Amino acid sequence: MSDTLVKPTSPPAGAPPARRRNRLAIAGGAVLLLVLVLLPVLIGNEVAYLKVAQYILIGAVGGIGLTLLVGQAGQLSLAHPFFLLVGAVSYAVISGEAEAGLVGLGLPPVVGLVGAVLISGLFGLAFAPVAGRLRGIYLGVASLSLVFLGLWLGQSLESLTGGTSSGRTPPNFELLGFVFANSQPAPTILGIAIQKQQRLWYLFLVLAVVAYLLARGAVRSRIGRAWRAVRDNEAAATAMGVNVTRVKAGAFVVSSAYAGLAGVMTALWLDLVKPDENEFTGNYSLTVAIAFLAIVIIGGLGSVPGAVFGAIVVYGLQQFFLLGANEFGWFADAQFGGLTAVVLSAFVYGAAVVLVVLFEPGGAAAIGRRLLARRTNTTDSRTDTAVPAASGGRERSPERNDDDPRA
Amino acid sequence: MNTFLQLLVNGLGKGAVYALLALGFVVIYKATEVINFAHGSLVLVGGFLVYELKDTLGWVGAAVVGIVAAALAGLLIERVLLANARAADHNSLALLTIGVDVIITEEVVRRVGADIPFIGDPYDAQPIQLGAITIFRTQAIALVVGAVLITAFLLAFRYSSWGVAMRAQAENREAAALMGIRSSRVTATAWLVAGALAGVAVLFIATQDFSGAGLGRGTHAIALVAFPAAILGGLDSTAGAVVGGIVVGLTEALSAQYISFEFSKSAVFLVMLVVLVVRPSGLFGTKELSRV
């Protein structure tokens, strides 16, 4: 917490660079958003690339949810895949049609999406009494039980999940009569037809941006301060008037809701809701729990932009290698058991996790923060003699200095 | 009744294996306060070498090599990675072991490839008939080996100078260092022992009797089931690890028979949840107190 104490002391002299940095950040953000909006046009008709980008957004939304819980609120959780499953199944049940032994309410997909997020949050709330009692690794392993529970429920409640053999098809998303599926004729942007995958991309982009902004808002506000207070010292937080039980439960609910949203996105991305056959492979398995944790660690615990970066590394690379395998025949000589796309991406992100912990425990967020600080420092020394001592201290701060909302 | 007795013996045999794995978690946790998420990959390393070498060295030779290799792999992880990350706190180091785990597991699984071999040749799939009850030979041998190893371990932990040093360090790292206990050596041996125990455990796990699944991702997942065993008993209690292992083994065997096979793994975790809700630090774990 040292930096939060130091920050206010940086004199007004630090203000102009900060404002400049702010303006720069806004400009950078706008350019990035423009690129993302135009991505279908830039990519053209290569839908496979667009699928990779969509997948990264799924990882980003889920990762943001987990980084809030693990990094900001200090509660280790491996239960993320469970909430993904809850979200995916809820969406299919609420909006899907009742057919051939499947339960489906047939409500509008928007209701399904919102409902899935809410239901995931409620499941998180149901686990909160357990989560509130446990700390650190005990909580981590306890949350692991949800993954196993999800595996079993997914297999036994076939009328909801569709079962492990065939699964069920989630309904196409639909908003105000606009269906997120292929259509004839399709609207075009700069000559590129906006078909199902392009539409999904825009849907995912909107969801991810909203998720991102909400998370940033939470981190910067009273909620985020309460999370960090509880993380750093529960006794002290209580003394400051923070209701520890409620704040911890709240963090779990928010994180599960994010995971639920990521689950809906997964269902739409795969065009399939199918529970896993075992606990170690599949879309809602232990592997996914570890992948999400890797996203959070690589990005820097508690950093929202970091989670997005982590998603690019972990989720992006995997799909990128898979794409390379399909399109260009990479790893073609690797038979079963060879160096495949999935194995290679696991190597990369496993190594990234090790390197991050060894050399930069703050993750990508800390590196980014340091680069920014260096730049502002040099402009400072030109315009003003008052170099904020804070940045030096922040660089070397041994603890997780992830609570700098500007980073 | 006969079924029940059968389940009891088989469950205890499984429990002994889980106890071996849980002891590994506990030893490392006591020495360093780090949770070793890479335990499953140590299991795989040992099992993989047995699989590779058993045709050339014979099963016994391969088993010895596998155990030694798993122990050395543990030592290597500690010496090369963890010992060089002094600045990082325990939780980050636990996360680091996740990274290690991902890499080793992927490598072993891809090397094993499509085979998914069973490695318990001398005893696997040769059930023992005792009157009306049938006992899996693997589980019976596991029970004996587990009992011997656990007793030896607990005695060593209690009476040998290594055990005293280990307990002293767990009690108070700085005071122990001031008394001339080499912290690095204690830590290194903890990883060595944990690795060796994992190497023994895999000889029983990757069998038809135990899991029906050969060496592969399934083995790794079974090692994860030892997590609840360690947590259930209390992460800093060696006796707790043994009790936890047995509880897990029996829960799995009984629920697989009386409820459903699919449910058995979830049952283990549900039992752990119930225990944790009542006792947040496990059955025998030290309660965490916060002083204001």
TrEMBL record, chain A:
Protein origin, superkingdom: Bacteria
Region Disordered, annotated ranges: 378-407
Protein name: Branched-chain amino acid ABC transporter permease
Segments of skewed composition (Basic and acidic residues): 393-407
Organism: Pseudonocardia humida
Pfam family, one: BPD_transp_2
CDD domains: TM_PBP1_LivM_like (cd06581)
InterPro entries recorded: ABC_transp_permease, LivM-like
Automatic annotation (TrEMBL), chain B:
Keyword annotations of the record: Amino-acid transport, Cell membrane, Membrane, Transmembrane, Transmembrane helix, Transport
Domain of life: Bacteria
Membrane-topology annotation of the record: Multi-pass membrane protein
UniProt cross-references to CDD domains, sorted A to Z: TM_PBP1_LivH_like (cd06582)
Regions crossing the membrane: 12-29, 34-51, 57-77, 140-159, 188-207, 219-247, 267-286
InterPro entries the record matches: ABC_transp_permease, BCAA_transport_permease
PANTHER family referenced in this protein's UniProt entry, alphabetically: ABC TRANSPORTER PERMEASE PROTEIN, BRANCHED-CHAIN AMINO ACID TRANSPORT SYSTEM PERMEASE PROTEIN LIVH
Family: Belongs to the binding-protein-dependent transport system permease family. LivHM subfamily.
Protein name as annotated: Branched-chain amino acid ABC transporter permease
